[in-house]
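Holo prediction. Input below; ligand is uracil.
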Amino acid sequence: MTARRPPRAEPSDDPSGSHRREPEGSDPGQQPQRLEDCRRCGLWHDATQAVPGAGPRRARIMLIGEQPGDKEDLAGLPFVGPAGALLDDALRDAGVARGDVYVTNAVKHFKWTPRGKRRMHKTPAQREIEACHYWLERELAQSGARVLVALGATALKAVLEESGVGLQRLIGQVLEHQGRQVVPTYHPSFALRVPDPASRHRAYAAIVEALRTAGELARARHR
Ligand code: URA
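Structure of the complex:
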């Protein structure tokens, strides 16, 4: 288990994110063996710890989120905060057991900006998604999962390695990518955040539908 550092009051990012200087010690060419040693981008600097994926290696389905949130950064586990609670509900409604899926993130460190005492999520930059692909590739190589659920646009970009891919038009489809089936859907945080109840309900239903599809695809592959 990694030693935990308390969250810093000030991240190294500037508020716009446009003039970010990577903290000293960052090295995009680094090839670390252990996630906790990763300095491939600057996000390690302000995170408590790197958050690895969790779940059985033999899982037939891999769920990929964006990056750990505030709770995950402190716990060292993916999807244990509010987005994780919604994901648990959606898995239950889809008839897929969380214990049967491997859950991870495209980016393994929490990217945040301070607002008062709170640490507010910031969307990772493309270069951070690319730097962290090093770890996603390893997870994919070590996992038997042939069905991937991309939870949100960042996950979809990371899985397809395509920075310009648009999530909205691909929802409801199953994509074939490098011998795997990819099911794109909304990120659980989106379903929590949408202000009007009808849209919130539709986003949640789309997530449930994607997870149900993933369950059916995984079963069909093992028949
Ligand atoms: N959002 C994510 O994308 N991943 C988590 O682990 C938590 C929130």
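The chain is about 35% helix and 15% strand. That is the main takeaway for now.
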